[in-house]
Write a structure and sequence with these properties.
This protein has 491 residues and is an all-beta fold. It has 4 domains: 49 residues, no CATH class; 129 residues, Immunoglobulin-like (Sandwich), CATH 2.60.40; 152 residues, no CATH class; 108 residues, Sandwich (Immunoglobulin-like). The chain contains 2 helices and 34 strands. The strands form 7 sheets. It has a 7-stranded antiparallel β-sheet. Strands 24-23-16-21-20-25 form a 6-stranded antiparallel β-sheet.
Length: 491
């Protein structure tokens, strides 16, 4: 077997940093331009062609960076921000002398345990086009962040005003927060001088502040839904039922599109904001779009349920006899490690077959609040009359009609009936247009001279009844009456 030497010099037998799964300090060797690593059996395994790779090694022989001409990746080292001073900064010098080029720079910082508890990371990628004296164009985005780190740090765009290509890490708070800094660079036109990359000393003589980091809103595909009549929930995050709860949140927009992919008229969009922390649970929602041919059988609701032994705050999504084709979420969510199933779409009941699909969810599901569109307006819908009740005359305004605006249902009509019996059912309103489990009672004066007044009552199953006056006496003969009442729709 050929002899493989540890790193003593650059060249064909150098120890270098492996890409991807074996970076920064792992044992990697080259031989005749080929890159090898050592597997669990202590055998050499070829992992990449190493020709042109240049390693950067620290004083202990550990690889801290690697470049190949126009591409470089390097661990820059630690930065210790002194305690008690706000708005401290450190510059990341990418090129000691700016050169004409186009490409991108990615700055990664990792914050360690400290007084501010700003553990986590912050990543910014900057695409640039520069000449030796000016930045002709650049576009930057924070591509990843943890909440605590983003609250304490910010990363500037590129700057060449000093003749160097650099960017600045801004420490926003006045408590000690140590960080580790990593840099990746790609240039379309010039080689990267990896050895010349450097961190400046920490300074605080620049009072300027950088904007708070913001990440582009990601889109999370929740699932493709093809099953009609299937009731499903989206698990959001943990829910506090006792004790002190870890932090969980979901802030963003849910989109459920029903029918064919092009059926934009069959859409449910809800803007939600939920949080569980310490000893509280909060959940708010506003329906941005609620439109469908005929309405949904069940509106979306906030609920709690158990899944794999843990209690979750969840979203019970609308369902109907037609299936949704697209379901996704745009926004941010956070869940503790005890609740790893956030943003999981789970079917729990088949309403058509009356079959339980997930007993743990089905048996534990507890509705907290219905999500309705406060701007939703169904328009006036003509009800189907029964029990011998008819419109008073041919005037369209005499027909019995109902309408829902937000959560409120309105019913009106001018009607006629002959010899009505007690508790005569004369109409039924569909689901979504019904009162709660206690029903409702409404007074309805007659417009026929000499007849006693009547009242209506409405069952939560949608039936509307005519009943007698408070004495229970029903009028005889032909009676005409007007009704105009409203109530809060079922939860």
């Amino acid at each position: 077997m050929p002899k493989f030497r540890r790193f003593r010099k650059t060249g064909a037998d150098a120890v270098v940093a492996a890409p991807a799964n074996a970076r920064f300090g792992d044992d990697v060797v080259t031989r005749n331009g080929t890159l090898y690593t050592v597997d669990e059996n202590k055998s050499l395994v070829e992992i990449a062609k190493a020709k042109g790779f240049v390693p950067l090694v620290d004083g202990q022989g550990k690889a801290t960076g690697m470049s190949q001409g126009r591409w470089a990746e390097r661990y820059m080292g630690s930065v210790e921000f002194p305690d008690g001073v706000a708005n401290q900064k450190v510059d990341v010098i990418i090129e000691p002398t700016a050169k004409p080029s186009a490409g991108w720079v990615e700055i990664n910082i990792v914050s360690r345990v400290n007084r501010q508890q700003a553990f986590g990371g912050l990543t910014k990628r900057i695409h640039f086009w520069i000449n030796s004296a000016n930045i002709l164009a650049q576009k930057s985005d924070y591509t990843n962040m943890s909440q605590q780190t983003a609250e304490n740090f910010a990363i500037s765009d590129l700057d060449v005003s000093s003749g160097k290509l650099k960017c600045t890490i801004h420490h926003r708070t006045n408590t000690a927060n140590p960080i580790e800094v990593f840099v990746k660079v790609f240039s379309c036109e010039v080689d990267i001088e990896m050895e010349a990359m450097a961190l400046s000393a920490v300074y605080d003589d620049d009072p300027g502040e950088l904007p708070v980091p913001m990440v582009q809103v990601p889109r999370v595909a929740i699932g493709i839904i093809h099953d009609a009549y299937i009731q499903k929930v989206v698990l959001l995050h943990n829910y506090r039922d006792s004790g002190n709860a870890p932090f969980g949140s979901c802030i963003g927009k849910f989109v459920f599109q029903r029918g064919p992919n092009a059926a934009a008229s069959r859409l449910y969009v809800a803007d939600i904001s939920t949080q569980t922390a310490y000893q509280t649970n909060t959940y708010r929602a506003n329906v941005l779009a609620f439109h469908d041919h005929g309405g949904f059988t069940v509106p979306a609701k906030f609920a709690t349920c158990n899944y794999k032994g843990q209690i979750y705050l969840c979203l019970v999504i609308p369902y109907s006899n037609a299936s949704y084709q697209i379901a996704y979420f745009e926004g941010s969510f956070e869940t503790p490690v005890t609740h790893p199933h956030a943003m999981k779409l789970i079917a729990y009941y088949d309403t058509n077959a009356a079959t339980v699909l997930d007993a743990e969810i089905n048996n534990s599901l507890t509705v907290l609040e219905e999500i309705v569109d406060n701007n939703y307006d169904s328009g006036w819908i003509e009800a189907v009359l029964q029990g011998g009740v008819t419109p008073y005359n041919n005037d369209p305004d005499c027909k019995l009609k109902y309408r829902k605006i937000g959560k409120i249902v309105y019913v009106k009509g001018t009607l006629t009936v002959t010899n009505p019996t007690t508790n005569l059912i004369f109409a039924n309103l569909p689901a979504g247009f019904r009162p709660g489990s206690l029903g409702s009672r409404f007074f309805a004066p007659t417009i026929t001279v000499g007849h006693p007044s009547m009242f209506f009552w409405m069952h939560h199953n949608g039936n509307i009844y005519i009943s007698g006056s408070t004495t229970g006496t029903m009028p005889t003969g032909t009676v005409s009456f007007h009704t105009d009442f409203s109530f809060v729709a079922e939860a």
